[in-house]
Write a structure and sequence with these properties.
alpha/beta, four-stranded antiparallel sheet, 7 helices, 10 strands, 27% strand
């Protein structure tokens, strides 16, 4: 699979996603058209049920659109089969979740190395330590998740999401389980790493403090983009 260029462009064309049958249908996204252009860092804002998570799952190849087209650079996710989508996720996407999803029986080093093992490669010690140094945890390489604070665990999750050099990082409410100080620190870390590594980052959140700091903002209400609320900020 070819490597994505820096600031990979996302393009959605008339994308809808419906869950349930005709009688109980829930419209998560409604004919959404949007492109990330060359903005490298987007905050996807909206209340619970606005469609934020569904949008990230479509762009990450976890969900399929009910209709419309989903592109990440030259990759048409809406046309891919399950095997192709799995390969796309494995090589091109880094995921950061609300819960850090660290494996408790593995050390920090082993947790960070997991995406490399999934791509049938093995992380060199220097590469893993360098990645942990970027998130300020080079001295905790042999610690277990239970030995870390909540903020440190999320920083391990960030290192894991970036270790295989994806073109796109998707963070779904990554600060929801953190206090305001640690939440802002994690957000600033993501901004810093996006600038240094050239990846495209989408952060879904309803936190006003993070929305205020968004370099570019996409606001959703009931599965639709709020007019005038999709673009660079400041």
């Amino acid at each position: 699979m070819e490597k994505c260029p820096p600031k990979a462009t996302i393009h959605l064309k008339k994308v809808s996603r419906t869950f349930g049958d005709q009688r109980t249908a829930i419209q998560a996204l409604d004919r959404l058209t949007w492109t990330s252009a060359q903005q490298g860092f987007w905050v996807v804002a909206g209340s619970s049920g606005s469609g934020k998570t569904t949008l990230l799952q479509l762009v990450g190849g976890i969900e399929r659109p009910s209709s419309g087209e989903v592109w990440v650079e030259a990759s048409p996710l809406h046309r891919m089969n399950e095997s192709q989508l799995a390969d796309f996720r494995r090589h091109r996407i880094g995921f950061i979740f609300q819960g850090n999803n660290l494996l408790r029986h593995l050390t920090v080093r082993e947790n960070v190395e997991l995406p490399l093992l999934l791509t049938q490669s093995r992380g060199e010690e220097e590469v893993i330590r360098r990645q942990l140094d970027l998130v300020g945890l080079a001295d905790r390489v042999d610690a277990f998740p239970a030995d870390l604070s909540g903020g440190e665990q999320q920083r391990v999750a960030v290192a894991r999401a970036l270790i295989h050099r994806p073109c796109l990082v998707l963070a779904d409410e990554p600060t929801a389980n953190l206090d305001s100080t640690n939440g802002l620190a994690l957000f600033e870390l993501l901004l810093k790493l996006q600038r240094e590594m050239g990846v495209t980052v989408l952060v879904a959140t309803h936190d006003p403090a993070l929305i205020d700091r968004a370099p570019a903002l996409l606001r959703l209400v009931d599965g639709r983009i709020v007019p005038g609320m999709a673009g660079a900020v400041g």
